[in-house]
């Protein structure tokens, strides 16, 4: 018994995703009571942590900037699957895609970026990063969000939505922008997304001398990452109805469901970015945060546009007035943070205050 317990502790990242899948299968057609809801939430949290563990192994093997893409794309797959699943469930969810994607943008650009800067600068007064790469990522996120979330509010189409032709254009533009950024990040200007150098020397990385995982370990972690992500999206789907009930019970607006979904989906990214920042890998943190925001828009909106062929009801993508104000303020603050190529704890605090404002206004619109 002791040997089995010791093995489970050592290989928890292998055990938890498997438990998550087993629990998902067992509960799929079962009405969850309070006990099962709590158990599912605990397993979901453990599976998220396991996903982070395996994503870090893969990222360490492939190196930057490819490693940052692994978790960003994987997390976006979860987001798309969850949104489409909920929208096809027959419930009144015309703004779910907008609420979730906008929440992902605010969580990444303010919550994750702010926390990462705060952690990165906590022991070093300031933290440094590559302004060229981070600026390119910020410009792409701004263009994507404006084209897909702000523009629908101001078109001639009645309501904050696109016409079919406009939606097709927005989807194509989103894919094109994301593809151009990925090419820039991985091929054309890969050096823009690598850690900056000081006096010709690379920035110290506390994990730089860690032994790279073997090819077998990498493929094992990649497979377990897929298993973990499947478990996360499935368990999050099971928790979606209790979340909706809980949000309604405490009197929060229905749109807050999108915030909760985005927080669940981006938890792996947030943990990975925070860990990277605390280890003096600020560029990796920013790659993760802005890459997630970009993937969330650039891949989710086209997928939702494609799904709208068989989805019934309107697809409302346009932001409200307060949301647009928060987005514009976030972009301005982000530009001022990125341009110098270094940030202090103050900038991290400003981003976190904007994140708190977003959460507060989501609860009290």
Automatic annotation (TrEMBL):
GO terms for molecular function: potassium:proton antiporter activity; sodium:proton antiporter activity. It is found in: Membrane. Keywords: Membrane, Transmembrane, Transmembrane helix. GO terms for cellular component: plasma membrane. This is Ionic transporter y4hA. It is a multi-pass membrane protein. The chain crosses the membrane at residues 7-26, 32-54, 66-88, 100-121, 133-155, 167-188, 219-236, 256-274, 286-310, 316-339, 346-364. It comes from Leifsonia tongyongensis. Signal peptide: none annotated. InterPro entries: Alkaline_pH_Ca-Antiporter (IPR052946), NaCa_Exmemb (IPR004837). Its main location: membrane. Residues 35-186, 221-363 form the Sodium/calcium exchanger membrane region domain.
